Amino acid sequence: MKGVQFLVAFVFLALASSFATASDPSPLQDFCVAIDEYKSGLNVPRNTSNPVGSTVTPVNVAQIAGLNTLGVSLVRIDYAPYGQNPPHTHPRASEILVVQEGTLYVGFVTSNPENKLFTKVLNKGDVFVFPVGLIHFQFNIGKTNAVAFAGLSSQNPGVITIANAVFGSDPAINPDVLARAFQLGQKVVKSLQAKFWWDNN
């Protein structure tokens, strides 16, 4: 519960900062108009019976219009045992994640040319930061379900799941490109494309 309180405090501090520095009062007016469009139910566990074993429940400008221009959003992430939030990026936001239940192995990779991997095993109440735009992941290494909440520094952070984007694009990327980029045979590439295209569509 302390993790949730921490994130709520983080979001309200960010909101207060936005209000204090805004010369145009419209963000505050927009928030007050939309305050009744709140999001409830983040205490409810989500179904994680999918190929990756996790479900992300977002609370961003698409769910609460009053977040527009405020520069914050929130997600709840549920993980099945050994489930993961696969490698992905947020092109418009840094992320701060707090574990509410379970044990997660988390990490991010720095940009070229170093591509240095930073990882940590997190337990209940632990916090980890993922810098904006970098590929990162979370993996439930426990035998029980895990839950985390994350604050993001944008009302519309975006998400690019690497495997889905590369192998599941529509239309598909030319297999010659992916075969050479990933040093794989064309049969493997086409198999991955068929799988991820089906999953995405």
Automatic annotation (TrEMBL):
Residues 1-22 form the signal peptide. The keyword Electron transport does not apply. Its main location: secreted. Residues 40-190 form the Cupin type-1 domain. It is found in: Secreted, Extracellular space, Apoplast. This is Germin-like protein. Keywords: Apoplast, Disulfide bond, Glycoprotein, Manganese, Metal-binding, Secreted, Signal. It comes from Xanthoceras sorbifolium. Pfam families: Cupin_1. Belongs to the germin family. The keyword Manganese applies.
